[in-house]
Backbone:
């Protein structure tokens, strides 16, 4: 836990300041919303969110359940981690599966190989309706993507889950407005102001455990359009491609079909920090195959109800 | 500051987090300045750079346009203007920065107020060829009104005036004359060329006559809002923790009052007053995550345990016993109207002040403020982007300090309960509640 603040009133360190802000935002959600949920995927950002929630609410229980929208295309290491960590914390985990939405017919893929990533919005909206959540707390950061740079910390979504970038609530001082009418929804982003480097520094400082695929390991991959594509049952090599065993790590862990690893020898948080500080490619640029399609693709997805 | 590299992450020096605002229009080179700061601190990564290089080429530009880095949403790109506040980040290894990038046009006063509300410092850009303009004065007035502690006037495009010392000093003189009239103090001046990078991160060679700090040096050494601990302790209660875990009898009587220290500091043993009840007790423990941390300063989110059992809920305030704020049911304020729907005298609004929410009605519009000159004008109504001195009647009291003494407990927002939109931003004026 955090060290004593220095007696001579030197300012808070940047991580202390970011952490304090995130705790404040989570407590505002708890104070203002009747039935919130915290989106937890087992990824590094949401793992930081759980530590922040512990600092915010212990010795009490979290005033919200954890919710994961599972595409069915997640790495086993990550979903196992998700389950065991929720259990260790003694908090309730709700998993809703995109495959159930497909069976219901609310999600229709164009073809079997289509990325399921953007369809998560449908399953999320179904879960929101099923449980009557009035707020979902997410681990999105403004440095991830241009569309996020202008999104509010408390981001209003209408009854259809849509984000309207031209009609956002002004957000001033540390006064957050999470008021909604029935059927409407707030997405709250407590770590909006964190960068990837901040996240890794926090993981190091708090000594947080992560799914193993964040650390360097050898994995069969092919090189495709400048990215490394892991060879899995879902993402087989194409006939003209050569499978190579390469030492890689994942910078983000999303849907298998659209998350690529980077070449790396970093097998500890400390080494990852050194690499992150020296990296020359943005997090999503390196690793998200779906975001490259269009400069505005995240904005488009958010308008449709995406996280 | 040529060693300003994020690779220094492991240095033990951490000068915290500075939030600053850049004011100016595209013409002043604001986007270029932000691009320059990100580029020279090595925050821009290769793929982001190649994306803007592509766009520059598509638009027929010969060099990479750094201003494209701050181009926002597709909706805005189509219109070619920035309509909303965007947040950018960079770090020098010793300090982390959050830039609030607000559009500069007059019709966007509300965006600037929004961006300014959290800023510790404002960079006001002046085009060296044009000098102090109406817009410069407007930005300075708003920055001052919203209580930004540090103002930096950056005279940009020095390359276009032959890096002339005389031009710079004339602008400085003009600005100081204006600032003195408006009571704006503690302003720093710096000549820069954002395009060429002179005096931004690197000193460059063209401005040898200027002996002061570079812009980044000024940022690195600015004191943070958290440094100011002179204000008395204020702790609005956000949430009350009562675990009542049957498996853990020790927690049976646990009552933790959760919130953020908005000003001052707190430690175990401090005497406090709880508002609105006015009951007094002492702090038994200061905790974070259920563990004792002994003390906390402004900016920290903590949990307080008290020595006596007092009924406290969200919206109450715990304050220093000898310096508690007054309860006010009628407030004098400076209000910025944010909504397209004008302020309506007949309506009941909600005012959120700290964690407290009360019903409010407009009592009077004392006058409207001309945002370019601060002149007082009579006003019957308020529309979007208006600034005015207004009086509100409240259904329940709030525990406020004057904004110019305390930016946290002097600020509030106005909410329209019909659609829950945030429609106004207010600052409690000095002398409020004196009647």
Residues:
């Amino acid at each position: 836990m955090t060290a004593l603040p220095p007696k001579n009133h030197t300012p808070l360190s940047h991580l202390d300041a970011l952490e304090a802000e995130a705790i404040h935002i989570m407590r505002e959600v708890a104070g203002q919303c009747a039935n919130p949920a915290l989106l937890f995927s087992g990824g590094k950002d949401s793992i930081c969110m759980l530590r922040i929630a512990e600092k915010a609410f212990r010795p009490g229980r979290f005033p919200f359940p954890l919710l994961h929208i599972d595409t069915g295309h997640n790495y086993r290491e990550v979903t196992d981690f998700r389950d065991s960590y929720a259990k260790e914390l003694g908090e309730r985990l709700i998993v809703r599966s995109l495959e159930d939405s497909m069976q219901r017919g609310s999600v229709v893929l164009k073809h079997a190989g289509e990325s399921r990533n953007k369809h998560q919005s449908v399953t999320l909206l179904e879960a929101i309706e099923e449980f009557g959540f009035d707020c979902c707390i997410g681990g999105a950061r403004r440095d991830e993507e241009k569309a996020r740079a202008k999104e509010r910390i408390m981001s209003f979504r209408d009854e259809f889950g849509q984000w309207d970038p031209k009609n956002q609530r002004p957000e001033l001082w540390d006064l957050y407005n999470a008021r909604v009418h029935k059927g409407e929804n707030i997405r709250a982003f407590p770590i909006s102001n964190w960068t990837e480097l901040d996240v890794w520094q926090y993981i190091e400082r708090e000594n947080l455990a992560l799914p193993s695929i964040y650390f360097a390991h050898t994995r069969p991959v092919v090189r495709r359009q400048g990215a490394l594509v892991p060879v899995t049952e879902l993402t087989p090599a194409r006939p003209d491609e050569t499978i190579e065993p390469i030492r890689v790590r994942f910078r983000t862990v999303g849907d298998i079909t659209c998350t690529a690893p980077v070449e790396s020898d970093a097998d500890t948080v400390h080494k990852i920090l050194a690499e992150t500080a020296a990296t020359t490619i943005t997090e999503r640029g390196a690793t998200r195959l779906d975001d490259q399609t269009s400069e505005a693709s995240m904005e488009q997805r958010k308008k449709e109800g995406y996280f | 500051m040529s060693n300003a590299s994020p690779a220094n992450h492991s240095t033990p020096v951490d000068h915290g987090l500075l939030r600053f605002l850049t004011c100016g229009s595209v013409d002043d080179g604001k986007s270029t300045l932000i691009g320059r700061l990100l580029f020279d601190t090595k925050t821009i990564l290769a793929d982001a750079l190649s994306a803007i290089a592509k766009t520059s080429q598509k638009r027929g530009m010969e060099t990479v346009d750094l201003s494209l880095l701050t181009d926002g949403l597709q909706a805005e790109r189509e219109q070619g203007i920035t309509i909303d506040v965007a947040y950018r980040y960079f770090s020098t290894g010793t300090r982390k920065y959050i830039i609030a990038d607000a559009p500069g046009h007059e019709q966007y006063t509300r965006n600037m107020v929004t961006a300014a509300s959290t800023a510790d410092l404002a960079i006001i850009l002046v085009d060296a060829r044009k000098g102090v303009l109406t817009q410069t004065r407007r930005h300075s007035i708003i920055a001052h009104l919203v209580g930004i502690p540090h103002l930096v006037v950056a005279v940009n495009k020095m390359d276009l005036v032959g890096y002339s010392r005389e031009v710079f000093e004339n602008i400085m003189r003009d600005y100081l004359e204006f600032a003195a009239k408006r009571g704006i103090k503690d302003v720093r001046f710096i000549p820069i060329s954002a395009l060429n990078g002179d005096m931004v991160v690197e000193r460059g060679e063209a401005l040898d006559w200027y002996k002061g700090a570079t812009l980044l040096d000024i940022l690195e050494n600015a004191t943070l809002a958290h440094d100011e601990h002179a204000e008395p302790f204020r702790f609005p209660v956000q949430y009350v923790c009562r675990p009542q875990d049957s498996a853990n009898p020790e927690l049976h009587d646990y009552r933790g009052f959760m919130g953020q220290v908005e000003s001052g500091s707190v430690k175990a043993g401090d005497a406090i007053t709880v508002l609105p009840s006015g009951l007094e007790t002492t702090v038994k423990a200061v905790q974070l995550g259920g563990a004792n941390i002994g003390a906390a300063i402004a900016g920290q989110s903590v949990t307080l345990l008290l020595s006596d059992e007092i009924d406290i809920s969200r919206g109450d305030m715990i304050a220093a016993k000898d310096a508690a704020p007054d309860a006010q049911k009628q407030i004098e304020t400076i209000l910025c109207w944010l909504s397209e729907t004008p302020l309506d005298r007949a309506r009941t609004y909600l005012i959120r002040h700290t964690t407290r929410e009360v019903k409010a009605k407009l009592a009077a519009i004392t006058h409207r403020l001309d945002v370019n000159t601060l002149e007082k004008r009579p006003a019957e109504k308020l529309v979007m982007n208006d600034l005015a001195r207004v009086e509100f009647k409240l259904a329940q009291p709030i525990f406020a300090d004057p904004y110019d003494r305390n930016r946290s407990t002097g600020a509030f927002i106005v909410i329209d309960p019909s659609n829950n939109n945030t429609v106004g931003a207010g600052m409690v004026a000095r002398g409020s509640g004196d009647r």
